[in-house]
């Protein structure tokens, strides 16, 4: 555990150093064919990290690296967006025994998949918070308005707000979706940012 915590501190320090360097010096895997296509958009993801809660982030990172003990299905499956089976996503477990939802080898792959879905939505003209949640959780099988309200409350955005990856909006959006899907959001900003950067 000491080694684990030390490695997390090292990672945080390195990320903070890179972020400081980028602020002071402005200039600068193989996908499966059936996975939805989208742009990479990984530039500047370190800028999404909120340094004000660094201790909380370290504790969350330790929990993530140690393995989740959550009883929530999405967390157990490393699929915090509760993405249904269908496409062949990168990072899927070899054995898929859930029956309905994708199971990933690591939560970062689940977050990566969420990012690619959001990017794909934008290509289809699904842009506002309300449009995104109505597509993510259709009213046919969800209380979609409650979901929209939950995301609005967590992010502080109105329903007509258009989240932009380039502004760092995917971090709070994905955190809000994870919380509503699972009743908890156990991942550090570092984990989520890494998942976004993998997309």
Q: In percent, how much strand structure appears in the residues? A: under 5%
Radius of gyration: 17 Å
- Number of helices, where a helix is a run of at least 4 consecutive DSSP H or I residues: 8
DSSP E strands, number: 0
Question: What structural class is derived from the secondary structure elements?
Answer: mainly alpha
Distance between the termini: 30 Å
Question: How many domains is the backbone divided into?
Answer: 1
Oligomer: single chain
* Pattern of helices and strands: HHHHHHHH
Task: Summarize the biggest pleated sheet.
Answer: none
Write the layout of secondary structure elements.
Blueprint: H1 2-24, H2 54-66, H3 73-76, H4 107-123, H5 129-136, H6 144-155, H7 170-182, H8 189-197
Task: Write up what this structure looks like.
The protein is an all-alpha fold and 199 residues long. 50% of the residues lie in helices and 0% in strands. It has helices at 2-24, 54-66, 73-76, 107-123, 129-136, 144-155, 170-182, 189-197.
């Amino acid at each position: 555990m000491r080694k684990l915590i030390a490695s997390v501190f090292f990672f945080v320090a390195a990320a903070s150093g890179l972020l400081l360097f980028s602020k002071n010096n402005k200039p600068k895997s193989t996908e499966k064919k059936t996975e939805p296509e989208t742009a990479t958009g990984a530039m500047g993801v370190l800028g999404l990290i909120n340094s004000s809660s660094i201790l909380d982030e370290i504790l969350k990172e330790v929990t993530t690296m140690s393995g989740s003990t959550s009883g929530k299905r999405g967390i157990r499956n490393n699929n915090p967006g509760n993405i249904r089976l269908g496409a062949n996503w990168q990072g899927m477990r070899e054995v898929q025994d859930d029956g309905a939802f994708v199971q990933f080898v690591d939560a970062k792959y689940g977050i990566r998949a969420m990012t690619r879905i959001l990017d794909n939505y934008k290509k289809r003209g699904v842009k506002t918070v309300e449009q995104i949640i109505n597509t993510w959780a259709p009213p046919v099988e969800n209380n979609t308005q409650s979901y929209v309200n939950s995301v609005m409350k967590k992010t502080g955005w109105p329903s007509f707000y258009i989240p932009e990856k380039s502004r760092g909006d995917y971090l709070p959006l994905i955190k809000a979706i994870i919380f509503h899907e699972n009743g908890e959001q156990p991942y550090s900003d570092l984990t989520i940012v890494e998942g976004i950067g993998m997309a």
